[in-house]
Structures are given as structure tokens and as C-alpha cells.
Fold:
Amino acid sequence: MPIDRAQYTRHFSKDQVAAWLCPRCKHGYLKPIRDGFLTVESAENKLAATDEDRRDPIFEEHRFSMLLQCSNDICGEGVVCSGAWGYEYGEMKEEEEEGGYFPAVIAAFIPEYFVPALDIFQIPQGCPPRASDEIRLSFRIYFADPSSAANHVRKAIENLLTAKGIKRFVTEKSGKRKIVSLHDRIVQYRIRDAENADLLMAIKWLGNAGSHDAELTKEDVLDSYELLEVVLDNLYVKHAKKVRQLAKSVNKRKGPMRRL
Ligand SMILES: [Zn+2]
Structure:
């Protein structure tokens, strides 16, 4: 299922919090608990308040914590979200007293941590534990540190290839053990599964950019999650394959399937 990217990239306002899916039951949505919203000023901000040049609210930095609860009564999981907030300019508004149009100043909240972490996509049950553990570690730091989140995705696909029997080490003639690069392992895997190998290669390129060139953005990490979700579905859920099989059977019958 495509990831609702806005939920995981945009800031939110206090009266319009994103409808994040409950990480426990995966049915309910997380709703802010009444009086569960706290904010605190940064020390830097207090110093800036005495500085003439920095009195503009747009330079202010604050921190917040927010308590959320799952809307599903049977579950009722409690989640804590914390992060930073500040003011930013919104749409232009007419100010009669001032006589003209001015940008509205709105409070924007940026989550950095959720405890427990959100499941940004659903990991299928059949996924090898060593791969799913890395994906969960990635979810834990996604908001605060996208590049590190991408690094865990890279480890997840290394572990996925190991589970598929693609060797991580080779023994050289000298008897020395040598690590096989992720690139070479994917090339080797392509011999038997070209479709998924291409998706894994794309994830690898995204991860490479994160570890060598520049910081990855949340959008880049969401790209790698989308690719990984399809790989896991192809390998462990096989939904598309099952649907293709269903179409084949219906076409053969030229009508509905007979079910007892
Ligand atoms: Zn729940």
C-alpha cells in the first residue's frame, strides 16, 4: 500500500494533528489526549528574547511533548510524541488595524520521536526476523535522523539476502575470508529473481547516497521504504502473484470461482 507521505514528512498544527495509525493494533488512529500537550522554551530562546535583532517570533525555538491514545477501545495503546516547534509564516491575511496584508504566523510542530515507534509500513509476518528487527530500528529514528534510518534499511536488505542464501563472505585461495559487497550480492541474486533484485539495487543506491555524499531527507527514506515494502510483499505475502493466479482461473472459467 502506498505510504501516506504527508503524515511522515509535514509538520502539524496543534488543532490539526496527523491521523497516525496505532503501532500496536494497526486498526485505530492515534488521537491527542486532552491536556496531554506540553511545551517548553529552549535556553537559547530565552537569551534571544533580550536581543533586539532576534525578537521576531520566526526565530523562536521550542520543544513539545504530546500524549496520544489509540482510538480503538479494545486496544487503547498510549503513545508519546516529542519534538521541536516554532513559528512560521502562513498565508497572507488582511490586518485592518495595521492597514494592509501581512503573512499569518502559525505554530508548526515537527515530531522527532514516537514511543513506541510508528510502523511506517506493515512488515509481513513471514519476513526474516533479522531483517524485520533492522526495519523496526529504522522506524525508531526515522523522524530524528533519516540518514541513520536509511542505514538500517541497508542492513535489513543485507540480512534479507543472507536469508535467501546469498553469501556474505567468500573464502579466498589464501584461506582469508572476504566480505562480498552489497552490490555484488544483489547482482548474484538477480540471476534467480530479476524483479526484486532491481528494487533492492534502487534501495542500495539510496543508502549509498546517505552514507557517502549528503544527508538523506525523509522523502528519500520513504522512497526506500516503498521499494522495500514491495520486495517484502513479493517475497513473503505474494499478493500480486495470488491475484494474477485468480485472474487466470476466472478467465479460464469465464466466470466466478466455485467455492464450497
Ligand atoms: Zn491500537
